[in-house]
């Protein structure tokens, strides 16, 4: 099968034909990938945001849709023919061994889920079945962008009706945070980004106020909008210390700062911690603490009944051979929404 492989940090992915193992191990599921999203986490892996990568060469990707082709011993939650969402948060089933791929006889590493390939062998607990008539392009978003974005609002920031929310960074996850905040009737919902195209999409998702931080002092603009009341929930998708510190300063005494973006190794924040003792919250999010087997069906039903928008979040489509173009565009911030890698071409 053809796959995109990380062979060197801060370098383009290599596109190559790799060999799959002859048989599936306990708990493994063979999936034909139809669509794979590209998340900022993959950019971080490529760029070494967390430091040295000890598993190179390895496969990437954690958000996709596909069809189950075969299952290994012990698999109970999916079967051949099922349409599925592939996700990185653990769901039902076995935590299987990682697949043994090779290229020219040399091992290519992979985790429990990878999606930048025509086929993939994943752990049973990284796939969730969806209805056979699902829109498979949209379904890929439930692997991370939707479940993380909605989970941040539900589980991390715990936004209530009428609370003031600031979403800093309007990428694929940020746009879904905005949409989820609108679903729970937060007000105002302030989206902040460097790019007008992303802010325009944030407005479609339910943002009530937009701030372009490349041309406007975001801190002062937020103060001007909210006055002395402050922010109830400040959600950061950038991982930048100065923005996190600003959010901590601007939140109410009992406000919450939720960190979704991952900072580069060594990028530490500097805060006055006393407010933490009196009700202010500062916490990191791990995929919105989503539970795939329950949250994916819930959110999917919202889409199928027209309660949320997802198709318009997919603004650019690429083939697997073009994946480095997609990654470069995402890194530059030139794409408004989610980039989708289309395998069925």
From TrEMBL:
Keywords associated with the record: Metal-binding, Oxidoreductase, Zinc
Needed cofactors: Zn(2+)
Organism: Pseudoduganella ginsengisoli
Annotated GO MF terms: oxidoreductase activity, acting on the CH-OH group of donors, NAD or NADP as acceptor; zinc ion binding
Span of domain Enoyl reductase (ER): 10-341
One of the Pfam families matching this protein, by short name: ADH_N
Family, per entry: Belongs to the zinc-containing alcohol dehydrogenase family.
Lineage: Bacteria, Pseudomonadati, Pseudomonadota, Betaproteobacteria, Burkholderiales
Stated name of the protein: Zinc-binding dehydrogenase
InterPro entries: ADH-like_C, ADH-like_N, ADH_Zn_CS, ER, GroES-like_sf, NAD(P)-bd_dom_sf
């Amino acid at each position: 099968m053809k796959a995109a492989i990380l062979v060197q940090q801060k370098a383009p992915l290599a596109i190559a034909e790799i060999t799959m193992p002859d048989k599936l191990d306990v708990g493994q599921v063979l999936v034909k990938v139809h669509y794979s999203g590209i998340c900022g986490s993959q950019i971080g892996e490529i760029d070494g945001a967390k430091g040295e990568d000890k598993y190179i060469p390895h496969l990437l990707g954690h958000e996709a849709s596909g069809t189950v082709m075969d299952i290994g011993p012990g698999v109970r939650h999916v079967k051949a023919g099922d349409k599925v969402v592939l996700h990185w948060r653990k769901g039902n089933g076995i935590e299987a061994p990682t697949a043994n791929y090779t290229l020219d006889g040399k091992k290519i590493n992979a985790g429990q889920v990878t999606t930048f390939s025509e086929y993939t062998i994943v752990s049973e607990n990284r796939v969730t079945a969806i209805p056979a008539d699902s829109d498979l392009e949209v379904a890929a978003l439930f692997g991370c962008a939707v479940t993380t974005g909605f989970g941040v609002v539900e589980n991390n920031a715990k936004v209530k009706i009428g609370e003031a929310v600031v979403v800093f960074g309007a990428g694929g996850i940020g746009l879904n945070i905005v949409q989820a905040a609108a679903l729970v009737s937060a007000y105002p919902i302030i989206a902040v980004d460097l790019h007008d195209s992303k802010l325009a999409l944030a407005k479609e998702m339910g943002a009530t106020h937009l701030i372009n931080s490349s041309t406007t002092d975001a801190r002062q603009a937020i103060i001007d909008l909210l006055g002395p009341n402050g922010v109830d929930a400040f959600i950061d998708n950038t991982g930048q210390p100065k923005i996190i510190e600003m959010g901590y300063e601007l939140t109410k005494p009992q406000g919450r700062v939720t960190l979704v973006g991952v900072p580069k190794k060594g990028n530490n924040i500097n805060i006055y911690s006393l407010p933490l003792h009196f009700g202010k919250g500062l916490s990191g999010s791990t995929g919105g603490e989503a539970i795939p087997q329950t949250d994916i069906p819930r959110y999917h039903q919202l889409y199928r009944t027209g309660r949320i928008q997802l198709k318009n979040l997919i603004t650019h489509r690429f083939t697997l051979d073009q994946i480095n173009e997609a990654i470069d565009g995402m890194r530059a911030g030139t794409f408004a929404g989610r980039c989708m890698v289309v395998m069925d071409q």
